[in-house]
Structures are given as C-alpha cells and as structure tokens.
Design brief:
By secondary structure, the protein is of the alpha+beta class. 28% of the residues lie in helices and 23% in strands. Helix 8 crosses helix 10 and helix 9 packs across helix 10.
Length: 448
C-alpha cells in the first residue's frame, strides 16, 4: 500500500504579516499515512499525536497550497480535502506541512424551547453546562494522552525539534542519582483504558504512567499535576508545588537539596501547559524514599478506582481499597482517606444525589412522552427538597385494567445510600401466576 509522508506542525498559531500567512509552531513530527486515508482516520491520528481530548478540545488542520499567489490557508474538513493535501505531498517539489491549531470546545446548553423541552427550567439546564472551573475536567483525564499503541498503523518518522532539550534527559549526573524507573522511551501519557476502561489493578495504573520530558504538552495545569502525582507514586518520592500561577507551574522534590525539578508554562491563547525544564534525577539520599505518598490524594485514588463502581451490584469497601493499595502499590492508606476515595469514585461513576434529583423531572417527562399513559409524581418540601417519588408505566396500567387479577401486593426494601429511605413496589399476578409489576415509589419509611 502506497504511503505519503508529510510534516505535522502543532503547538503554535497562524500569523498574518499582510504579505503572507505563516504558522509559528512549537513542535513537529513527520508521519506516514496511507494514500487512501479518510478525513475521520486522519483526524483521529492527529488528535492522538498532538495529545488532545476530543471531548474537550477540537483541532483544525490547515495547509498552504503551493501557488504563486498569496492564498489563505486551506482547512481540511472533508475526505476530498485530505486527498488534495496528500496529492500535494506526493511530489517532493510541492510538499507542504499540515498545521494544527487547538481550540477548546464551547459548552452547549440544550435548547429549552419547543414542546419537548418546555419543562426544563434554568436550574435544570445548569446541569448540562456544569464545569469544575479548572479547565478540562479530571473525569476525562488522560483519555487522549499519547501511547505507542495508538500508532500501530502509522509510521512516526520524525522527532521533536527541541533535540537538545530531549537529549539533556539522557545526560548522566556527576552525583549518583535515582532516575525514575519508567523511561522516556516508553512514550508520553497513560493508557486511557487503565483509568476509564475495564478495571485491571491499581498497580497497572501506576506502572503504565510514562516519563515526562521537556517539550511535553498537557491540556491543562491540572492534568500535568495529575501526571506528576502518578509518577511520584510509581517511584516512591514526594514533591511540593513551589509556585503555581495562571501562567507558571513549578514543582520540586520535598527534600530541599534534591535537584529534581519541573517547570512548565502556559501557552498563549489556550489552557495548555508545556514543560520547559525538567531535571528527572533525584540527588537526595536513598533514605529519603517515601512510602506514605503525600501525593496519593483521595481524589487521585478515586479516579483510579472509579471503574470498580461502574455497575449495579459492585461492592468495593474502604478496607478493600486499603488492601489493594498495600499489595499493588506498597502504600499504607488510612481508613479515612480510603473512605473519601470511595466517595470520589462513586461520585464519578454514578453522580451525586443532588445531580440525580436535578434531572429527575426531565427523566419523568421523557418517560411520559415515550410511554403513553405513564403516571409520575415528585413531591418536595417547602425548601424544594426531595420527599416522595411515584412511577407507574403506561403498559403496566393497561395490563392491570384488562387481564390482571384485581389483587395488589405492596412491598418495600431499605435504600442503603447516603439519604436512605425505602423503595416500594406494587405487584400483582397475571394469568400464569407470574409476578406483574404495577408501580414503583420512594418514601422515607414504611408507614400509614
């Protein structure tokens, strides 16, 4: 299969000098793709290459068409555009670079106009645009960071322009040092499946973290901090944040005389941070190895174990978390931190009770729309706090009227959640003596 090579420039911006358009870039790669590559395939390859989360950011791919006239950059948005670009690069005399710019996606509030959405008020709409205020949410963290497995069908030929900075990581120190046991040859990032996919183990999450290097780009300061926390757990050291501003992020080893340092700065006109300086060698004594893991916060642990709670019958207790952290990561975790990590993981996997209550009216509305005859009811107190809920599906009501024995049994079960309560169900028997569900309800207790 014929392949086409071309240069990808990213981490920069377009500059219009009046006479011509120029892309001032920060990083570059040379890749090789099939001549039959589609737009969707190319978009996915470039997204992984420049390390962006497609759920939070969008990329624009443009190139300069070789012409004696001064033309604005052409944007690649269709399969035909991809073929034009590849044809340009088929001839060595007309090769042109693919220039990539990154833009943060806008939050879109669902349309509240129209008969289908008349019930959605401004308070409910706020749920759809909620954000933690810290840039890209940790819920999506590391989903798009680069992994060698992402390029099984793509030949990465080039390297970053900042070769001197890259090579500086390979130099040896005059003082015996403790270099991180994960090397830069493993690539950058964490496999997303270990955090957001099927659960394997905490050990795999920590061991799959890749070393940081000068020039590495992170979508936000929070993601860089998260990455360094995982590295510190993997290598049993602690660090402290020496300086954190909107444009600068500096970290150092907790041992004052140690040479380990990370310095990152914010790129212009975006939320991304780039590592400018990195000293990966620890010059502190081996006695300074720390196993209590100051960086192992309940939030970080919660993000690592949240897949344990992605199910209706998952039981993962604080003692289980403590045992797993001890066996897999060599960490001694307190019960309180394990409990908080469990709460974080459950919130990420299932959402909070407040969020669930906020979208309950929309859920009831859709039930009534899609199941004609359905009856729902929500009762609140004077402060608009949840009290009772009732639901009976239309088909169940019709069946009860036509062919079900006129005897109703009501039973309840305790809800073992934060706000407790009782779940009620009304059932009957059909002609085959099978249990026939009629209605469901939630109340505070089983009483008159």
């Amino acid at each position: 299969m014929d392949k086409v090579r071309f240069v990808v420039l990213y981490g920069g911006e377009w500059i219009n000098s009046g006479e011509k358009f120029k892309y001032q870039y920060g990083m570059s790669k040379i890749i090789s793709v099939s001549r039959e590559t589609s737009y969707e395939s190319l978009h996915g390859i470039i997204s992984r290459l420049v390390e962006v989360n497609p759920n939070e950011c969008s990329i624009k791919m443009k190139f300069i068409f070789n012409s004696p006239e001064v033309l604005a950059p052409f944007e690649v948005v269709t399969d035909d555009d991809v073929q034009v670009f590849l044809c340009e690069n088929s001839d060595v005399n007309t090769r042109t670079s693919l220039c990539v710019t990154i833009e943060r996606k806008r939050r879109i509030i669902p349309n509240t106009e129209g008969p289908d959405n008349e019930f959605i008020n401004e308070d409910i709409a706020d749920v759809f645009e909620s954000d933690n205020g810290n840039g890209i949410g940790l819920d999506n963290i590391h989903e798009s960071l680069l992994s060698p497995n992402d390029f099984q069908n793509v030949d990465v030929i080039g390297a970053d322009n900042n070769d001197e900075a890259r090579n500086s990581r390979q130099s040896t120190s005059e003082v015996p040092s403790r270099r991180s046991r994960v090397t830069s040859s493993q690539g950058i990032g964490v496999k997303s499946s270990t955090i957001h996919g099927s659960y394997t183990s905490l050990e795999s999450v920590v061991n799959n973290v890749k070393e940081v290097g000068v020039g590495d780009l992170f979508p936000s300061k929070e993601e860089l901090h998260f990455k360094m926390q995982l590295l510190s757990i993997a290598n049993h050291f602690q660090f402290k944040v020496k300086k954190s501003t909107k444009t600068l992020f500096v970290m150092s080893c907790i041992v004052e005389d140690c040479k380990w340092r990370v310095r990152a700065t914010k790129l212009k006109d975006c939320e991304s941070f780039r590592v400018r300086k990195y000293s990966p060698d620890h010059t502190c004594s081996l006695d300074a190895l720390h196993f209590d893991h100051r960086q192992a916060s309940s939030k970080l642990i919660g993000h690592c174990i949240k897949s344990k709670f992605e199910g209706t019958s998952q039981s993962y207790r604080p003692n289980d978390i403590i045992e797993d952290m001890k066996k897999q990561c060599g960490m001694t975790l307190g019960y309180n931190k394990a409990w908080r990590a469990r709460e974080v993981a459950m919130g990420l996997a299932r959402g909070s009770p407040d969020d669930s209550f906020t979208i309950l009216p929309s859920y009831c509305h859709m039930l009534e729309m899609k199941n004609p005859g359905t009856v729902t009811f929500i009762d609140t107190d004077a402060l608009n706090r949840f009290k009772y809920f009732f639901m009976a599906l239309g088909p169940s009501i019709e069946g009860f009227k036509s062919c079900i024995r006129p005897v109703v049994a009501v039973d309840g079960t305790f809800l073992k959640c934060k706000h407790q309560g009782t779940l009620f169900i009304a059932t009957s028997l059909d002609g085959n003596n099978q249990v026939y569900p009629l209605a469901f309800g939630i109340g505070d207790s089983e009483n008159d």
